[in-house]
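Exercise 3.2. Students should predict the tertiary structure of the chain below and write it as C-alpha cells, then compare their answer with the key that follows.

Predict this chain's 3D structure.
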Amino acid sequence: MTTITNAAIYDLVQDSTQLLEALERQLDALPAAGALLEQHQQLHRELLHRQQSGERAIEEWRRALARRWECEVAGQRLYLNVQRELVAYFGPASQALLIFLRGDEREHDAAQLLADLRQLHAALAITHGVPTAATDYLPDLVLACDALDDALHWSNRCEQQRHRAFLDRHLSQQAYQQVRERTQRTLATPVANLVADMPVSVAPER
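Answer key:
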C-alpha cells in the first residue's frame, strides 16, 4: 500500500495553500469558487491536523525506541555480570549453568532478553547453593525486567500509533487528490490550469 511521508504531507499542505489562494482570487469572477473554497478550507485544516499528529507519532516512536534500546543495553550488561559470577563459581563447562542461562550465545531481541532475565531471576531465587555474588543481583534483575517490559509495551504502542498515522495520511492524501481533481474539472478557467501545474508528491512507505 502506498502511504505518504512527512515531506509528502508537507508538500500537500503547500499545494493546498496555493490552491486556496487561487480560489480566493476567483471569488468575484466565478460563483462556484465560494463553495469550492469552503470545501478546500476544511480539507486544508484536515491536512494540517494529519501533519501535526503524524509528527507527534513519529517523535513519540523515536523516544520509545531510544528508551527500549537503553533498557536492552542495561539488561544485557546485567545478564553478563551475573553470568560471569555463575561461570566463576560453577565452572565454564558445568551443566548447572543451564538452570540459569540460555544455552547459546546468539544475540536475541528485546523480548527474548526479557525472557532470559526473568528466567535468570527465577532460577537464582529458588535454587540452593548459588553464590551470594550472583544472588546480590536479584533486586537489580527485578528493576531491569520491569524497565524493559515497560519499554517494550511503550514501543509497541508507539509503533501501532505510527502505522495508524501513516494510514490516516494516506486517506487524507487520497481525499485531497479527489477534491483537487473535481476542482480542476469544475473550474474551466485559468485557475484550473494553475491547479493542474501543482505537483502532488507521494512517497513509498518507509
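Discussion points: The first helix runs from residue 6 to 25. Residues 6-196 form one domain.
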